[in-house]
């Protein structure tokens, strides 16, 4: 009986995966989490914003990495750390995010030690 139920569950998930683009759904969830982070950051709650940006980042929403980098550069809700900002921006820039590329260029020209 368990094998039949498990088999039906697997078949059900396969049908779900065929009907829906799970990658796109994950990115939409990432966008929603990113927007929660933006609202919290605007409300001057950067520590809570960081949590939502991190969730969005794990779902592949690269703009969240840009926002995380900004938190670290400015020391908003976290200890200021340009090396950490560099890591977040580099990750987003490698995936084609132009905001991250611009931020990296500025960071590396102003504080080259942070980009090592």
Strand content: under 5%
CATH topology: Serine Threonine Protein Phosphatase 5, Tetratricopeptide repeat
Write down the domain tally. 1
C-alpha end-to-end distance: 58 Å
Please give the share of residues in helix: over 70%
CATH class: Mainly Alpha
Q: How does this structure look, described?
A:
- The protein is 78% helix and 0% strand.
- It has one domain (28-115): Serine Threonine Protein Phosphatase 5, Tetratricopeptide repeat, CATH 1.25.40.
- 28% of the residues are buried.
- It has 116 residues and is an all-alpha fold.
- The termini are far apart.
Please summarize what this structure is.
The protein has 116 residues and is mainly alpha-helical.
Observed structural traits:
Serine Threonine Protein Phosphatase 5, Tetratricopeptide repeat, 6 helices, 116 residues
Layout of secondary structure:
Layout (H helix, E strand, L loop, with lengths): L1 H18 L2 H21 L3 H13 L4 H12 L7 H13 L3 H13 L6
Helix pairs in contact: 2-3, 3-4, 4-5, 5-6
């Amino acid at each position: 009986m368990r094998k039949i139920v498990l088999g039906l569950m697997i078949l059900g998930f396969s049908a779900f995966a065929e009907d829906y683009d799970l990658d796109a759904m994950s990115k939409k969830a990432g966008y929603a989490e990113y927007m929660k982070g933006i609202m919290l950051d605007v409300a001057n709650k950067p520590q809570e914003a960081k949590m939502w940006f991190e969730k969005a980042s794990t779902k592949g929403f690269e703009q969240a990495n840009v926002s995380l980098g900004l938190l670290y550069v400015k020391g908003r809700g976290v200890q200021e750390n340009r090396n950490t900002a560099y890591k977040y921006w580099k990750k987003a820039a490698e995936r084609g995010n132009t905001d991250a590329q611009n931020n990296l260029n500025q960071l590396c020209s102003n504080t080259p030690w942070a980009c090592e």
